């Protein structure tokens, strides 16, 4: 991991309060910020947290910009100090008749092309506003912020972090992270006790890699911690995990496997060792049904129709070849190697279990609970309180987990400004529910 921006990195592009995750795939990469297109070519080799000035390219009809790094963020002009010279006592005499701006739309568009900076454009708008001087200072600041948001000409490129990724995914669509807001994510990490030592088990069914990224971030680099990341599909969602740009050694300690495939592999290996049928293998089928996803299974040679006849015809020939040549094992596929690595960790058992599922989590919990050590935390997230209540009752009945608690988070954000400190007018409500407890006698 380097401190400088390079091709191949995931970047967080920030324009005022707006943030966007962008892969810097090559020198021709362009990031779209609203109607503006920004070329990232000149950002290469600059340190993260660098602020860039958006320089318009001379292409008529298109809003395309290149980057010019600022030596210090203080170069950004303070519009409040530049433009607010006098203010009114109140807004009672201001009438919103849409006639206060003397400039027409065509004149404003022309200004945008001719002026070298957004500060000049906003300055011209203020000069030609009939009501700006009579507004209160608070109203003037709000006006400038609206215009600055529209014409702001600076971006900052930041390194992705768990907090930034969680906020970006939540703003785009909470369903992209199964409704896990950042404050709930922090509670999941806290309750699960993830640290640099131990083995941890996670089942999640579609958070764009946010949950494994957060857990691997807590485990850290150059440690003894391991994470087995189970998922219902054939391919794990890893965008957030890759965006964090963990060292290869750290990333290798996160093993992503299909839940049905790895459980099947584990119990088949156990059958081979003991030489007898394992009843737990039958329960694996329940997990495949519960997740409602196609599982990775070993492919068998077809024995119907033409394939069967061909197989019979080559039996004698194959036997003769095997007698003359030593048997060579086929090369194992990546998912098979991952299953073996996960199985080895499962034999040692885990120090905590986290389930973040869009499915009903109880059948998944029953299948994974035997792999958790005694007196270890269990954390289940769901957007439905009723689902967790059902799990709570069943777990109480089975007495497999103690100190069961169902909690919910409600985070309130505040605007902190002189004489204007108050909760945000619009904010999200509940971010789902957590069922937590500790295992007994495993």
Automatic annotation (TrEMBL):
Source organism of this protein record: Anopheles culicifacies
One GO process term, biological-process aspect: tRNA methylation
Location, primary (coarse class): nucleus
Example of a GO cellular component annotation carried by this entry: tRNA (m1A) methyltransferase complex
Protein family according to the UniProt entry: Belongs to the TRM6/GCD10 family.
UniProt cross-references to Gene3D superfamilies, sorted A to Z: Vaccinia Virus protein VP39
InterPro entries, alphabetized: SAM-dependent_MTases_sf (IPR029063), TRM6 (IPR017423)
Subcellular location: Nucleus
Superkingdom of the source species: Eukaryota
Pfam (any one): Gcd10p
Keyword Cell division: no
Record flagged with keyword tRNA processing: yes
Cited function: Substrate-binding subunit of tRNA (adenine-N1-)-methyltransferase, which catalyzes the formation of N1-methyladenine at position 58 (m1A58) in initiator methionyl-tRNA.
Alphabetic keyword roster: Nucleus, tRNA processing
Protein name: tRNA (adenine(58)-N(1))-methyltransferase non-catalytic subunit TRM6
Assembly with partners or alone: Heterotetramer.
